[in-house]
Amino acid sequence: MRLLYILTAVSLFLAPLISSLSDEQLDPQLSNLFGNDTTTDGHTNNWAVLVCSSRYWFNYRHMANTLAMYRTLKRLGLPDSNIILMLADDVACNARNAFPATVYANAGKMLDLYGEGIEVDYKGYEVTVESFLRLLTGRHEATVPRSKRLLSDASSNVFIYMTGHGGNEFLKFQDNEEVSAYDVADAIEQMWEKRRYNKLLYVIDTCQANTMYSKFYSPEIIATGSSSLGESSYSHHNDMDIGVAVIDSFTHNILQYLETIGKTSRNSLQEFFSTYDPAKILSHPGISTSLSNVPPEQILITDFFGAVARVEVSPQSAELPLESRLIASKDGWETTNLGIDDGSLTEEIPEALPRKMEEVKKGSGEWNQPLVVKTSEWGFLLPYLIGIVSFIWLYISLGDKEEDRKEVRKKEL
């Protein structure tokens, strides 16, 4: 029993000491508690933009490329809410499709890429150069829903995949218009200026693909393409039942590697790039890492192709202070304490309101300055005093009970 009293007294005495730990001491502990050690930097979320810019049945493989990449990202944990899927055509419902409502990327038809869980954000004629550039830069019309927006921020790693027909520094959309390498480079620069990404991985599978990232100039970008200047990007194989090519060689090579990794893989981007084999891809893939401050050997492939479960812990010092604001009422000026959740913290006091100088100043400075609530400089001693008083009280109580026990023993004797 005595041990229980002693432990209680010690805990009451130490409680103020523990509560007085600074934010600088607690924040690293909380960050380690909620952090995810599968990330190599401070990013907290991943986003993906998957674009198939081709129409028509004979471009079946481009839609299969995109859907296969979509399926892989979801397998590695990236939710639909963080994937923007753009399909310029719907071959699954094409009248020529001998297997309605399905899309396959292999001749064996072992895996239906369309399935039941697909969420297409932009389809058909919604897939345009304008909609793509607006998506990257965040310059949408007010009526565009959140599901069609890239809601990334400065702590987001963004993966952009594009496939279709292209040429020297351009990619065709809908066989009707083109987006140039300059357009994409400027859009990504706007993303960087607006703090819409932490790191960006750009992958493109088209003819002369490497020219599409030749004009990039923004920091923290790693880019790779399927073919160099003057080279075509070839399909991998045909399906005799479907009647067209079902996947491109470059994308097939990527997916073969990604199928070997899981959500917790520690493989780096360099290991991913080392799987490129021009003899199998039938072209010379390109890799650009000059704009990235971190070499691909130090970047995990899951930093782009997977999901990140990481929590940002804000220090207590970052919280808005409780302020006293002067607001206008029917009876004149009055002082009101406003909390953090009160939207009026951002409101400004109109200059046209009457200035009741005598009621407002009271030694606080200018009339339109907020009155900050001041706390006593001795307030931090209160927990210590409570702990000391509690300790003394328990010590005295323990002594009194010990005396009572001695008296009881004397009477028994």
UniProtKB/TrEMBL annotation:
<feature type="transmembrane region" description="Helical">
    <location>
        <begin position="378"/>
        <end position="396"/>
    </location>
</feature>
<keyword id="KW-1133">Transmembrane helix</keyword>
<dbReference type="GO" id="GO:0006506">
    <property type="term" value="P:GPI anchor biosynthetic process"/>
</dbReference>
<feature type="active site">
    <location>
        <position position="165"/>
    </location>
</feature>
<dbReference type="GO" id="GO:0042765">
    <property type="term" value="C:GPI-anchor transamidase complex"/>
</dbReference>
<feature type="active site" description="Nucleophile">
    <location>
        <position position="207"/>
    </location>
</feature>
<dbReference type="GO" id="GO:0003923">
    <property type="term" value="F:GPI-anchor transamidase activity"/>
</dbReference>
<comment type="similarity">
    <text>Belongs to the peptidase C13 family.</text>
</comment>
<dbReference type="GO" id="GO:0006508">
    <property type="term" value="P:proteolysis"/>
</dbReference>
<feature type="signal peptide">
    <location>
        <begin position="1"/>
        <end position="22"/>
    </location>
</feature>
<comment type="pathway">
    <text>Glycolipid biosynthesis; glycosylphosphatidylinositol-anchor biosynthesis.</text>
</comment>
<dbReference type="InterPro" id="IPR001096">
    <property type="entry name" value="Peptidase_C13"/>
</dbReference>
<keyword id="KW-0472">Membrane</keyword>
<dbReference type="Pfam" id="PF01650">
    <property type="entry name" value="Peptidase_C13"/>
</dbReference>
<protein>
    <submittedName>
        <fullName>Phosphatidylinositol glycan, class K</fullName>
    </submittedName>
</protein>
<keyword id="KW-0732">Signal</keyword>
<dbReference type="GO" id="GO:0016255">
    <property type="term" value="P:attachment of GPI anchor to protein"/>
</dbReference>
<keyword id="KW-0337">GPI-anchor biosynthesis</keyword>
<dbReference type="InterPro" id="IPR028361">
    <property type="entry name" value="GPI_transamidase"/>
</dbReference>
<keyword id="KW-0812">Transmembrane</keyword>
